[in-house]
Specification:
heterodimer; A: mainly alpha; 15 helices; 73% helix; flat; B: alpha/beta; 5-stranded mixed sheet
Chain lengths: 329, 477
């Protein structure tokens, strides 16, 4: 609380006039009505046509079709019969599907929250250091994002393998923790989801870090100087300047990584195939199974639509939070 | 963007994945891996599917089944298979021979050979067979997921008259053809009409390391009681009794070992009736199955399996066995060539009296085939003596039993597998892979075995849960 009082003096200097959200929007819309901007608008509309067509054909249309399929019993080729809401009720009544949604929730922590937090801290620390070598660091941390996920999954399967062949277990052994050497991290009911989650942290950390690094560099150093003059330490600077000034980047990072976590498939598919048992089953895996293995296109579509809705909800919540609090946006 | 990356990658896995597993079960099981393309393709498939739906111009119906003769009008036979070099080197090597034999017997014909990965085929067959670009003859996968779907959508020709014409059921035996049979609505498996003809066979069996058995004072197994008595002896001698893996990628040993144990304790007819859904309420909830599950759980508890098995892939288990670290290895005959080339005469392959297995993928004739008679003639070439003998040379079990004198020239392990297959087919002791039972059974079973081994399910609870999944599927059908 104390912190926010000190904070308020800094960013408000840069903030737009304190109108309400809707008032601001209306004002913006009115601005467009000048003759000059009408021409701009027409040109703008023409320019977005190619993108809009592609979007409509490859995203919007399939999405509408998927909604349509989700109310059907259909194998993809043969006759279709109406399924009513049964494909949707199964999302809760079927324990495997429900469990997969729970796992997706847990994985959001690993795919999104932890990498965002770590990335923020790393970026903030680096912002205080001299800039030399930054490029190299950026490349190294971003590398997991560039690698094809399947390669990442294969490599981590080796690292997490049980016995002497697993790099992690060999390391543990070196440090005298030989009790753990036999642990099959990806094959154990209690560890598998966390193991996959930690791989996801490694995967997404670089993305968040690089995103935040560019954000940190955008923050005027005068703000930090002012804060230091006021006697703020590293932790205060982080909470009072770095975090509030980077709300936009945080929003982007959260959105991208949460979407990635809800869509997670490749990593799980290669590393655990949802096992052991159903300990790491995620919705993406079930969508694929339903559609391609079991020929239940309706059930696959219902799960897909539910995932899309969840994604929308998360995106809008993040946006709403940022618009309300992040006056800089 | 994330999406694209993931699914491109998914496609890649499938390919590497089943290169390690050969034989019939291998290719069918990799349906699991097939075509990870998700919703976009799914939607596309749906659109095309409805657009091209059933304008039945079945050319098959217009041609009366007859044997192709050298003087019959010729043409080009479009032939599809998934015997790619990476996935099935044996089949890949045989394909040019089959084409040469066909073109020699019917000089007016040319055969095109289109090899594709199983994923490509699984993705494309339902749509390809529904459109004018359909091949004249193609391999199809057994089971509900692929062949059943194609039959239900009326994409395949009933092969009964060709089978009669060429005497296939006599050559192959009725059991392998049963694995390629569906009722014409695609709903019941193992009865009704024949839609595919296999040209190789793939039984499970038990590999053993003679040197290690000797070292432990154990005997080469010739009966179940001998086999079960060997395990504690190996353990006592400090040798891992069983090379085993239950993790990813692609370890199917959990189900394969479970099937083999079920064959030891349960009647073959119980499993056969369960898979083909014969009788009023087929059930595996029997003392035999519970005992199989109990034995399997005990193996985990007693340390009979490779340590850390839950995180190992099937390649790791194979390496364990071929590098002489384990006494036994329960898997399919498709590993014989790998074991032969590493352990040579030190290894053996025991086929118990009742075994699980299935024929390799069979060839089917699409409803839209331009010349079903030529297609049938091609299938018949594959069952001929040259191709069947060439199967043995590639380390595969031929689906047509070879003569004793021919078989005697091949390594002992392939002899055991071939004889074991023939004996089981003949005595009705060949058990289909239990996961044929319902489309989702493989997933349910894999999960159940893993829970059994981790002690999360009791043997009885595991069997009860599998039975209830099965009953639920059939009651909703």
């Amino acid at each position: 609380m104390n912190r926010s009082r000190t904070l308020s003096s800094v960013p408000q200097a840069l903030a737009s006039p304190p109108t309400s959200r809707w008032g601001r929007r209306r004002a913006r819309a009115r601005q467009f009505d000048t003759p000059q901007s009408k021409g701009d608008r027409r040109l703008g509309l023409i320019l977005i046509i190619p993108a809009a067509v592609i979007l409509a054909v490859f995203i919007i249309y399939p999405l509408i079709e998927a909604v349509d399929y989700s109310f059907l019993n259909w194998d993809g080729i043969g006759p279709k019969t109406s399924a009513g809401l049964s494909n949707y009720t199964a999302l809760w009544s079927n324990p495997v599907e429900r469990q997969s949604l729970e796992h997706a929730g847990i994985l959001i922590c690993f795919y999104s929250l932890i990498p965002t937090a770590l990335g923020l801290m790393a970026a903030a620390l680096i912002a205080r250091l001299p800039q030399r070598g930054m490029g190299v660091l950026r490349v190294i941390y971003f590398l997991p994002q560039v690698l094809v996920t399947i390669v990442v999954a294969v490599v981590w399967t080796w690292i997490l393998a049980p016995g002497g062949s697993g790099t992690l277990n060999s390391l543990l052994h070196t440090f005298g923790l030989s009790g753990n050497v036999g642990t099959p991290w990806l094959g154990s009911f209690s560890d598998a989801l966390i193991a996959v989650g930690l791989v996801a942290v490694w995967l997404d950390f670089g993305l968040c870090f690089v995103l935040f690094l560019s954000g940190v560099q955008r923050i005027p150093t005068s703000l930090y100087d002012a804060a230091r003059v006021d006697g703020a330490g590293i932790i205060r600077e982080f909470w009072l300047i770095t975090v509030p000034m980077m709300k936009r980047e945080i929003g982007v990072a959260l959105t991208i990584t949460i979407v990635a976590s809800l869509q997670s498939f490749t990593l799980i598919y290669q590393a655990t195939l949802g096992g052991p048992g159903t300990a790491t089953t995620v919705p993406g895996l079930l969508v694929y199974r339903d559609a391609f293995q079991l020929g239940t296109v309706g059930a696959a579509s219902a799960l897909g639509v539910a995932l899309a809705l969840l994604t929308f909800v998360f995106t809008f919540v993040i946006r709403a939070l940022l618009e309300r609090k992040g006056e800089l946006a | 963007m994330m999406d694209n990356k993931q699914f491109e990658a998914g496609d890649g896995i499938g390919r590497t994945q089943h290169s390690s597993l050969l034989g019939g079960h291998r290719a069918r099981i990799t349906l699991v891996a097939a075509g990870a393309l998700s919703a976009a393709v799914l939607a596309a498939a749906g659109v095309a599917g409805t657009a091209g739906a059933k304008s039945v111009t079945a050319s098959a119906a217009s041609t009366a089944p007859a044997k192709l003769t050298a003087s019959s009008p010729g043409g080009t036979l479009t032939q599809w298979n998934w015997e790619t070099e990476a996935d099935d080197p044996g089949g890949h090597a045989l394909m040019p021979l089959a084409i040469k034999l066909f073109e020699k017997a019917y000089p007016k014909w040319k055969v095109t050979n289109r090899e594709m990965t199983l994923e490509e085929q699984t993705d494309s067959l339902p749509l390809a067979l529904d459109n004018s670009g359909a091949p004249d003859v193609t391999e199809t996968n057994e089971g509900f997921g692929s062949m059943g779907r194609l039959v239900a959508d009326d994409e395949l020709v009933n092969l009964a008259s060709y089978s009669k014409l060429y005497g296939w059921s006599k050559e192959v035996g009725s059991v392998p053809l049963q694995y390629n049979s569906f009722t014409s609505n695609g709903k019941a498996f193992g009865s009704g009409n024949v839609y595919g003809v296999p040209w190789s066979a793939a039984p499970l069996g038990i590999f053993f390391n003679k040197a290690l058995l000797k070292k432990a004072g154990a005997k080469i197994p010739t009966s179940w009681s001998q086999f079960f008595a060997d395990l504690p002896l190996l353990k006592k001698a400090g040798i891992v009794p069983m090379a085993y893996a239950g993790g990813q990628p692609t370890a199917y040993q959990p189900v394969h070992v479970f099937y083999t144990l079920a064959d030891a304790f349960a009647k073959a007819s119980t499993s056969i009736n369960f898979v083909f859904h014969n009788g009023k309420s087929p059930s595996i909830n029997t003392p035999g199955y519970v005992k199989a599950a109990q034995t399997f759980q005990n193996w985990s508890k007693d340390g009979y399996l490779t340590p850390g098995y839950a995180g190992l892939s099937d390649t790791a288990a194979l390496n364990d066995f071929t590098s002489g670290k384990a006494g036994f290895f329960i898997e399919g005959e498709w590993y014989i060539s790998s074991v032969q080339s590493t352990l040579h005469g030190n290894a053996g392959f025991w086929e118990p009296p009742s075994i699980t297995g299935g024929p390799g993928e069979g060839y089917s004739i699409p409803t839209r085939s331009a010349d079903p008679n030529a297609a049938a003639a091609f299938i018949n070439i594959l069952l001929g003596p040259q191709i069947q003998k060439a199967n043995l040379q590639q380390g595969e079990v031929p689906v047509v039993a070879p003569s004793a004198s021919v078989l005697a020239k091949f390594p002992a392990m392939i002899q055991s597998a071939t004889n074991g297959w023939a004996a089981a087919v003949k005595s009705n002791q060949l058990v289909p892979f239990l996961d044929y039972a319902t489309p989702n059974f493989l997933n349910q079973e894999m999960a159940a075995v893993q829970e059994l081994q981790a002690g999360k399910l009791t043997p009885q609870a595991m069997i009860t849960s599998l039975q209830s999944d099965y009953t639920q599927y059939w009651s909703s059908k």
